[in-house]
């Protein structure tokens, strides 16, 4: 029998999960108050009224058992009334465990559940027993998994525990993504902005800023250097000229000297990045040559012979060689049966896997269709840019226009009032300015348009919010003129923003028309979407691209599927997410591990019922042309199911081959940011110096004020002993994982 409390008898908030107790449940609770045959208990942060059997203490924590129900309320009794009856709870637990003694692992898990007010019954006991017996992992890890489930207020089942354990302690999701890309022949470097090119671009930007600061002192000479820089001039050589010709000016202009130093440091990193990415062009060229023959040669028998020779190359890695040999045998069989098109398709599948393993990097050497062939292709079969404006995007544009109009109107009133008498300005403008700041912050945190704008607009809006907050402080101090200047700048910036959201994608129709290949499989569509989302995040790490990457993994799959069903319209993108593909594969008994990984991350990121919201995600990303992964731990106040970006804690853990694990801790309080970077290698701080100033500048561009930047070791040589499990509570972020210590 299951008892659900009458909502009128429970003081829990509407956003919290309703407490459900079954007859026979054992749990711990705090006694808040006691009346005649009734009591108010606090269970997992919620107050619940119950009927009582026997005597209960007036306050304090007690162990209870549900014996039945009366008048819509559960009836409970204390299972340990005095020290002489200390064996009673243990006897009850043995009874729930089918009469078998509890193992130390199971006993520790049950005790933790009861201490946190989670009811323990036969189903929970069986789930715990199954998870602990079937999971091959150290006891500490298994207990940590159970603690994570309890902290998120989840119903304890073996499936949920297995999923959470996979997310916390299983193999990284990057392995599954990397294998998917390789098996489907999707080139991870397609559409990528090379990391060396990005660093060089940053170096040029820093040198440009240095030159602009010196423009007034020597406009002609500086203009000449800027033209050389724009024409592709060498950063190091131009910086040397700047140091030689403007040494006196640089002494008096510390900001320009700082930009110049940053440019030189960043430029020094370009060569090591390029050298760290060796390219085997010989294999790539051989693969590309055969690929060209498959597409263009009319003699299919000659193509099969070339393909067979390629598959016998001793220099290929075993997996690629095996795939090519398999495709060569099947292609020869198709040719013998007169199925030339199927033979070309089979060879193309094999060659795509080889292309992914040995991509052709140099743009000048990449395979391109000849101009003569392109001219013969009808317009509808070329690459076409498809722009889609959905109802949701249209509504986001309308919402933004309304907010833009309201903010501009308010800022105009503030600017006008600030030009009046000082006292009048403070009295009239401060409430309106506070309301404008709140309006902008609400739009940034809760508006859909932030997910569909470009990175520059995103930075401008975040910066505007910070500027208005500064204007409010200036008004409070009586500095009206400065406040008026800032509001005028923000008003001008807001009026210039043009927000026209659309979903723009390039549809590649060329190869489909020429080869007449079958539509891409779900695995390949998923691989292509993942590759695209990782490249977009790598090339431009904006909020929109981060969100699209999370969507491509399928972290929002169930939510979007539900909305799609309610609207009565399908969503093609949902079928191309990693989770959608894994769900289909799991029906065939495959991909259980990766499926559990994603489900576990979703469970660990669900909305919390207490005042804090915590989230855990492991995301694949591209690092030096390989798929790696990084872990993200987030914690902030639970503000209407939104992360408060002005007051939150974030921890990123990157696993790199050269530097090992790198931890980055960000603590934000009222937009004041403290950063701590951790790594165990010697000289880590010196290696990071070239990019720290650049990172600080970019953080300040979006409204943060960097107060502190520290470097430390990731792991301490003398690790403190683990705290007693009874002292563990709400999960917090640590360098090595999800720590549950207080």
Would you kindly provide a written description of the structure presented here, covering whatever features stand out?
With 742 residues, the protein is of the alpha+beta class. The protein has 5 domains: 2-166, Nucleic acid-binding proteins (OB fold (Dihydrolipoamide Acetyltransferase, E2P), Beta Barrel); 195-275, no CATH class; 281-383, no CATH class; 388-496, Four Helix Bundle (Hemerythrin (Met), subunit A) (Up-down Bundle); 607-742, no CATH class. The chain has a 6-stranded mixed sheet. Strand 12 (642-656) and strand 13 (660-669) form a beta hairpin. The radius of gyration is 31 Å and the shape is globular. It comes from Jeotgalibacillus alimentarius.
Assembly state: single chain
- How many helices? The count is 27
Given the C-alpha coordinates, what overall shape results? globular
Q: Could you give the count of β-strands?
A: 17
Distance between the termini: 36 Å
Number of domains: 5
Question: Which topology of the largest domain does CATH recognise?
Answer: OB fold (Dihydrolipoamide Acetyltransferase, E2P)
Q: What portion of the residues fall into strands of 2 or more residues?
A: 15-25%
Q: What is the mean pLDDT?
A: 75
Organism: Jeotgalibacillus alimentarius
Protein name: Flagellar hook-length control protein-like C-terminal domain-containing protein
């Amino acid at each position: 029998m299951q008892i659900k409390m009458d909502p009128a008898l429970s003081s829990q908030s509407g956003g919290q999960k309703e407490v459900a107790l079954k007859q026979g449940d054992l749990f711990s609770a705090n006694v808040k108050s006691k009346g005649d045959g009734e009591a108010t208990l606090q269970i997992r942060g919620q107050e619940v009224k119950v009927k009582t059997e026997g005597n209960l203490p007036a306050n304090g924590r007690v162990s209870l058992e549900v014996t039945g129900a009366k008048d819509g309320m559960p009836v409970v009794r204390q299972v340990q009334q005095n020290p002489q009856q200390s064996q009673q709870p243990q006897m009850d637990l043995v009874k729930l465990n089918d009469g078998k003694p509890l193992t130390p692992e199971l006993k520790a898990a049950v005790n933790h559940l009861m201490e946190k007010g989670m009811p323990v019954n036969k189903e929970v006991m069986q789930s715990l027993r199954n998870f602990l017996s079937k999971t091959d992992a150290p006891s500490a890890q298994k207990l940590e998994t159970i603690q994570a489930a309890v902290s998120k207020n989840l119903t304890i089942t073996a499936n949920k525990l297995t999923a959470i354990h996979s997310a916390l302690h299983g193999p990284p999701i990057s392995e599954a993504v990397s294998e998917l890309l390789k098996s489907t022949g999707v080139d991870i470097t397609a559409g990528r902005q090379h990391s060396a090119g990005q660093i060089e671009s940053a170096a040029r930007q820093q040198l440009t800023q240095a030159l602009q600061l010196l423009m007034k002192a020597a406009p002609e000479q500086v203009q000449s250097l800027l033209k050389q820089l724009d024409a592709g001039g060498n950063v190091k050589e131009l910086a040397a000229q700047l140091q030689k010709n403007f040494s006196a000016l640089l002494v008096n202009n510390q900001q320009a000297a700082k930009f110049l130093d940053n440019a030189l440091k960043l430029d020094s990193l370009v060569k090591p990045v390029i050298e760290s990415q060796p390219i085997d062009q010989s294999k790539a060229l051989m693969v590309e040559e055969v690929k060209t023959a498959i597409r263009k040669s009319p003699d299919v028998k000659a193509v099969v012979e070339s393909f067979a020779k390629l598959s016998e190359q001793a220099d290929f890695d075993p997996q690629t060689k095996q795939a090519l040999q398999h495709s060569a045998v099947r292609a020869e069989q198709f040719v013998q049966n007169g199925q030339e098109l199927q033979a070309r398709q089979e060879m193309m599948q094999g060659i795509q896997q080889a292309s992914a393993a040995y991509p052709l990097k140099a743009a000048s050497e990449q395979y391109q269709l000849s101009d003569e062939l392109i001219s013969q292709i009808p317009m509808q079969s070329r690459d076409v840019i498809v722009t889609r404006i959905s109802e949701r995007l249209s509504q986001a544009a309308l919402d933004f226009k309304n907010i833009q109009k309201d903010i501009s109107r308010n800022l105009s009133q503030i600017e006008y009032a600030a030009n009046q008498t000082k006292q009048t300005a403070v009295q009239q403008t401060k409430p309106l300015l506070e309301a404008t700041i709140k309006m902008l912050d609400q739009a940034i945190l809760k508006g859909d348009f932030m997910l569909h704008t470009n990175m520059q607009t995103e930075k401008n809006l975040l910066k505007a919010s910070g500027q208005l907050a500064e204007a409010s402080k200036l008004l409070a101090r009586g500095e009206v003129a400065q406040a008026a200047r800032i509001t005028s700048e923000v008003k001008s910036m807001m009026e210039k923003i043009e927000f026209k959201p659309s979903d723009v994608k390039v549809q590649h129709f060329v190869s489909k028309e020429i080869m007449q290949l079958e539509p891409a499989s779900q695995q390949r569509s998923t691989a292509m979407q993942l590759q695209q989302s990782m490249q977009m995040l790598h090339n431009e790490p904006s909020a929109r691209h981060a969100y699209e990457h999370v969507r491509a993994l399928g972290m929002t799959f169930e939510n979007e599927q539900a909305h799609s069903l309610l609207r009565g319209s399908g969503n093609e993108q949902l079928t191309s997410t990693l989770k959608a593909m894994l769900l289909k594969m799991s029906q065939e008994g495959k991909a259980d591990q990766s499926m559990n990984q994603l489900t576990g991350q979703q469970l660990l990121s669900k909305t919390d019922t207490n005042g804090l919201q915590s989230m855990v995600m492991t995301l694949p990303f591209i690092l030096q042309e390989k798929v790696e992964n990084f872990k993200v731990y987030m914690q902030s106040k639970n503000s209407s199911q939104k992360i408060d970006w002005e007051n939150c804690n974030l921890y990123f853990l990157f696993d790199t081959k050269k530097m090992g694990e790198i931890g980055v801790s960000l603590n934000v309080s009222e937009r004041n940011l403290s950063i701590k970077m951790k790594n165990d290698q010697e000289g880590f701080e010196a290696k990071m110096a070239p990019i720290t100033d650049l990172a600080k500048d970019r953080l300040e561009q979006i409204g943060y004020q960097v107060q502190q930047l520290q470097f430390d070791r990731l792991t301490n040589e003398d690790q403190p002993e683990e705290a007693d499990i009874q002292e563990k509570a709400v999960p917090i972020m640590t360098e090595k994982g999800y720590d549950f210590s207080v």
